[in-house]
Amino acid sequence: MIIETIISTMSKEKKPQTSPFGIKKKNKLVLISPYLPSTTHTNMLENKFASISYTDNASIFVECIIKNQNFLMKKCTSIEAYYVKDSLRHDEVKVINYIKDDERPTFECEIIHSENHGSFLGINRARNALIEACILATRINLLPQKKILSELEYLENAILKTSGKIEQVSWNKLKKFIDKKIKKNEFNN
Ligand SMILES: Cc1cc2nc3c(=O)[nH]c(=O)nc-3n(C[C@H](O)[C@H](O)[C@H](O)COP(=O)(O)O)c2cc1C
After folding, report:
1. Is residue 83 lining ligand 1, measured as CB closer than 6 Å?
2. Ligand 1, atom 9: nearest CA belongs to which residue?
3. Does any ligand 1 atom lie closer than 6 A to the CB of residue 40?
4. What average pLDDT values come out for the chain (189 residues) when binned by 10 residues?
5. Domain spans in the chain, listed from the N-terminal domain onward
6. What's the CATH class of domain 125-188?
7. Which CATH superfamily is domain 2-116 in?
8. So what's the pLDDT on residue 189?
9. CB 92 within 8 A of CB 79
């Protein structure tokens, strides 16, 4: 199973990088697999640490994807990194093995510290739709435009029927971002 999370790492120059990543768990290990090139990959190779935030606030995924990052982070306890303040839990992990691959290498990580911050209050379809739309936003150069637009139209049903104000605002921001990216893509092709 893949769990959608927010991973934060730190560069050599102490610049944080915070991006959505789907992680896998294998026994007690966490597997993180960035597609190259990736700043998260560079940072994890250099300093071997990352925080993994588990949040039900889908707007945080949107903010990362549109590179707005309008949300608060807090200092980790045992590593030099930050985690998402509005998370239900976070893990602090250390890389113990690196599986090399030219396209998608994998970091095998050990959890060295975890904290719970809140309770999960239930599933909301609009939040799930936002996560799916974030994935589409990262695949504009890879998928046919028609597929992206029809999937967005389908996902919008859940937004219209089940969103709160925050999800509605995030949906509008993400749609604007996707529209702009599609236009740029058309211009370049
Ligand atoms: C829900 C979700 C899951 C994602 N999972 C991954 C992943 O496992 N690997 C990856 O390379 N990119 C993944 N992405 C895309 C990255 O977040 C995106 O490409 C980001 O810009 C990577 O930044 P980086 O330079 O820190 O790697 C995911 C995006 C979303 C919205």
Report:
1. no
2. 34
3. yes
4. 98 96 96 98 97 98 95 97 98 98 98 98 97 97 93 98 98 97 80
5. 2-116, 125-188
6. mainly alpha
7. Electron Transport, Fmn-binding Protein; Chain A (2.30.110.10)
8. 64
9. yes
